[in-house]
Design brief:
Blueprint lengths: L12 E2 L2 H15 L6 E4 L6 H14 L2 E4 L5 H10 L4 E4 L1 H8 L14 E4 L6 H11 L2 E8 L3 E6 L13 E2 L4 E5 L12 E6 L6 E2 L3 H7 E2 L2 E10 L5 E6 L3 E4 L2 E4 H9 L4 E11 L3 E10 L8 H8 L11 E5 L12 H7 L1
Parallel strand pairs: 2-3, 2-4, 4-5, 5-6, 18-19
Antiparallel strand pairs: 1-11, 6-7, 7-8, 9-10, 10-13, 12-13, 13-14, 15-16, 17-18
Helix pairs in contact: 1-2
Length: about 350
């Protein structure tokens, strides 16, 4: 399967039957999927989240699949009711579009056991909305094309720990390491490295790139996270997306989360812009909520004061009709970087 290529060229990841078998076992252990499970498959099957979360575990458990393209969120809500769907994986932008649909208020989720998301950070406010307004349990997972699922946020912790990616899946070892490969203390950001039976065999036809990320069986994800005192992991951002401004680290994900907490902002993406004095400065692109009183970029910047350190507030904010996304719903940051 090919990686998403949102920050570079896609690479072919060689995945074995054993990888998928253990991926299915992890889902059954974490979420108790069984033969009565009815999974709505809306994410494209070339996306690892759909194949590894929506399909393979449900087939392994003996459940049922309903396949439907995600074109109109109102139609997806109707399908959930009509087909008595109990389980669905989708990327955050799909859940966001469903919650903004005109059918949201009357949608009946009475047969839903839980939803699960992955592929990108899920805003806490959106998780809370599903939990509060529709009483839907919301699980989160974290994984990659090269590893399948690495962590689970169990249903018992989903409300209290909303926004966390949970703890390592069974059979899976996870470390957070610094540049030298040493483990970082709790509370400090470090790169996620993982070892276990779902780690891929390597990149198709790219031995040098395989050797760069697979070291003694440990896969270097390129993602940064911190571990809290209870052992739950929280994504900080991509290692390649850290913006270093006057020697200080700015994590794009932190700035994006602050922007999406603003009532007028539906989605946000932050990239680094070269700066002669500081090296780099953060620059943001936002998509506004429909039918809102559109704020100016300066008003958005002012709204971030007190929520972010001054040096983390984007120097420029661009308002777009829509953020560029891949077929799997991820923001294409290479396109945004080209604009700056």
């Amino acid at each position: 399967m090919y990686t998403s290529g949102t920050t570079g060229q896609p690479k072919g990841a060689l995945l074995t039957h054993g990888n998928f078998l253990f991926g299915a076992i992890h889902s059954l252990l974490a979420y108790g999927l069984g033969p009565t499970c009815r999974s709505l498959v809306v994410a494209p099957l070339f996306h690892i989240g759909a194949l590894a979360a929506s399909v393979m575990p449900v087939i392994y458990a003996g459940g049922s699949l309903v396949l439907e393209a995600f074109e109109r969120p109102g139609d997806t809500l109707r399908t959930i009711e009509r087909e008595q769907i109990s389980y669905m994986f989708a990327v955050p932008v799909m859940f966001e579009m469903m919650a903004r649909s005109g059918r949201w208020e009357t949608a009946d989720f009475g047969r839903v056991d839980f939803f699960i998301t992955g592929g990108a950070p899920m805003p806490k406010e959106l998780i809370r909305r599903y939990q509060k307004e529709k009483q839907v349990a919301f699980a989160q997972g974290y994984g990659m094309t090269e590893t399948l699922r690495i962590t689970n946020l169990d249903l018992a912790d989903a409300a209290e720990k909303a926004g966390s990616i949970g703890k390592p899946a069974f059979h899976t070892a996870v470390k957070l390491v610094d540049e030298a490969g040493g483990q970082v203390p709790d509370g400090e950001p470090g790169e996620i490295v993982v070892k276990g039976p779902t780690v891929f065999a390597g990149y198709w036809g790219r031995p040098e790139e395989t050797a760069a990320v697979l070291r003694e069986g440990w896969f270097a994800t390129g993602d940064l996270a911190r571990r809290d005192a209870e052992g739950f992991l929280h994504i900080v951002g991509r290692k390649s997306e850290v913006i270093i401004s006057s020697g200080k680290n700015i994590y794009a994900a932190e700035v994006e989360q602050a922007l999406t907490r603003l009532p007028a902002v539906a989605a946000a993406a932050v990239v680094g812009r070269p700066d002669r004095r500081r090296g780099e400065v953060p620059e943001a692109f936002v998509q506004l909520e429909e039918k809102c009183q559109a704020p100016s970029p300066e008003e958005l910047q002012a709204s971030l004061e007190g929520h972010l350190a001054e040096f983390k507030i984007p120097r420029r904010i661009h308002i777009l009709d829509r953020l560029p996304r891949s077929k799997s719903g991820k923001v294409l940051k290479e396109k945004l970087k080209a604009l700056v």
